[in-house]
Design a protein that fits this description.
14 strands; two-stranded antiparallel ribbon; alpha/beta; binds beta-D-fucopyranose; eight-stranded parallel beta barrel
């Protein structure tokens, strides 16, 4: 059998996030995050689910780490919960921080490298009450919290990620309203994005000041979810324009400031006349911000699930013709996450996952190549990739062939990109286990390990067994 090899030190792991798995929302001094509030908003979450219990990971952590070891994962990507570590955005809560200290020790004892993310969307509600991410002060509160985590875990954790998908935190949270805090305030998403980036830059500066460099074995990066924006009809001017705008407010709004130290002019043109608190979003960008934001990074985290193929409105769609129409959504109305909106996503005919996301591994390859060619990206970790599936348990087993194929195809795309000179240092499957999938609640399963939410029993799916073997062999079979 022919195989394709990964580099010798390629890091294989699985990812999860605090709010999606921990539960124990009132334990040991934790206070509410914006998600604890949002899950109580009528219609915000499919079937009214909440994450009060989730996977009970807070109490089952040692067993979960043992499971990772059994699956021979070399690394675990997790996030620390701001409202556990600094309740209400205030001073340190030792009991909350201790959980992550114990998790780190448990991982290291199991030979698993901790890969830590500081912000996976759980802003303390008290800080949202003070304005949230549209308030510049939140970036400084983030720095305080992040350094609190760093002070305690910095001796044992080498890989630090500031934010997970700031696009979702900003544009789903403050423009579309589909995510917490559920605000639907147009260009406020851009202001939130800028302040998230500012918080990132403040942490990078302090991390370096304290000796955080690859020479000392320490690295810092950010995880984005960049997309590939292809016009639905490349011969239709309006679709080409829609793809440009989508690229602007999904990719370039983060990539340009991070890697080129500026925001592109077309973002300004596209948002003319749109105000936040009576000001244009550019007025929130102060002298020195872009220098902080564009400090060199040691790695870029990339989360990828699907590309995007927009068609400009007006577009006459038959029922069922638009992506997402084959799944049930939470009932609360949401706006387009793109300021000004103006486009939809028709089916292109590619196969979809059960989430009704089109499967396009070659878009993944193209994306990775673009990150190298246009942005000179540092080494890339694929920090999330995986598939939602309506899994069925048969005699205690889960034959999730579709998920396994999805991962396999995307790993080939990673290898293809590497053949074109992109440096990819590792891959984390999303997710270690089924969990609370934000506005889709528990109905959307992404785990390679199945969770029975009645009993909390974990069962590795076929994809987990397969993935474990690929990671161990460090190579993929070629069909
Ligand atoms: C990403 C999130 C992650 C998970 C996956 C499916 O946007 O970072 O928490 O919800 O999607």
């Amino acid at each position: 059998m022919t195989t394709r090899e990964f580099p010798r030190d390629f890091l294989w792991g699985a990812a999860a996030a605090a709010y999606q798995i921990e539960g124990a929302v009132d334990a040991d001094g934790r206070t509410a995050s914006i998600w604890d509030t949002f899950v109580r908003v009528p219609g915000a979450i499919l079937h009214g689910d909440d994450a009060d219990v989730a996977c009970e990971h807070y109490d089952r952590m040692p067993q979960d780490v043992a499971l990772m070891k059994q699956l021979r994962l070399a690394s675990y990507r997790f996030s620390t919960a701001w409202p556990r570590v600094c309740p209400d955005g205030g001073p340190v809560n030792r009991a909350g921080l201790d959980f992550y200290s114990r998790l780190t020790d448990e991982l290291l004892a199991a030979g698993i490298t901790p890969f830590l993310t500081l912000y996976h969307w759980d802003l303390p509600q008290a800080l949202e009450d003070a304005g949230g991410w549209t308030n510049r002060d939140t970036a400084y509160r983030f720095l305080d919290y992040a350094m609190t985590v760093h002070d305690t875990l910095g001796d044992r954790v080498d890989s630090w990620t500031t934010h997970n998908e700031p696009w979702c935190a900003a544009f789903m949270g403050y423009t579309s309203g589909g995510h917490a805090p559920g605000r639907q305030e147009g260009v406020a998403g851009v202001v939130a994005a800028h302040h998230l980036l500012l918080g990132h830059g403040l942490f990078v500066e302090e991390f370096r000041r304290r000796g955080g460099t690859p020479d000392n074995g320490k690295s810092v990066g950010i995880t984005l979810n960049p997309t590939v924006a292809d016009p639905f009809d490349p011969t239709r001017e309006a679709d080409v324009e829609a793809a440009r705008r989508l690229d602007g407010f999904h990719n370039r709004v983060f990539l340009d400031p991070l890697f080129h130290g500026k925001y592109a002019d077309d973002l300004t043109r596209d948002t003319e006349g749109m105000l936040v608190e009576g000001k244009a979003w550019q007025d929130f960008v102060l002298a020195g911000d872009l220098e902080l934001i564009s400090q060199p990074l040691d790695f870029l985290g990339v989360n990828f699930y699907h590309g995007d193929v927009p068609a400009a409105l007006p577009y006459d769609a038959e029922p069922g013709e638009l992506l997402g129409s084959r799944i049930e959504h939470s009932p609360r109305p949401r706006e387009s996450p793109y300021p000004g909106g103006g486009f939809v996503f028709p089916r292109t005919g590619r196969p979809t996952t059960d989430r009704d996301w089109e499967i396009d591994p070659d878009a993944f390859r193209r994306l990775l190549v673009r990150l190298k060619d246009t942005y000179g990206a540092p080494p890339i970790y694929i920090t999330e990739n995986g598939a939602m599936a309506d899994d069925v348990v048969e005699d205690g087993a889960i034959h999730d062939v579709g998920r396994q194929q999805f991962i396999e195809q995307h790993l080939h795309a990673v290898l293809d990109a590497m053949d074109e000179g992109v440096e990819v240092a590792g891959y984390f499957v999303w997710s270690l286990m089924d969990n609370f999938e934000w506005s889709y609640g528990y109905s959307h399963r992404f785990g390679i390990v199945h969770v029975d939410y009645e009993t909390q029993v974990r069962t590795p799916k076929d994809s987990a067994l397969w993935y474990s073997e690929v990671a161990l062999q460090n190579r993929l079979p070629v069909a």
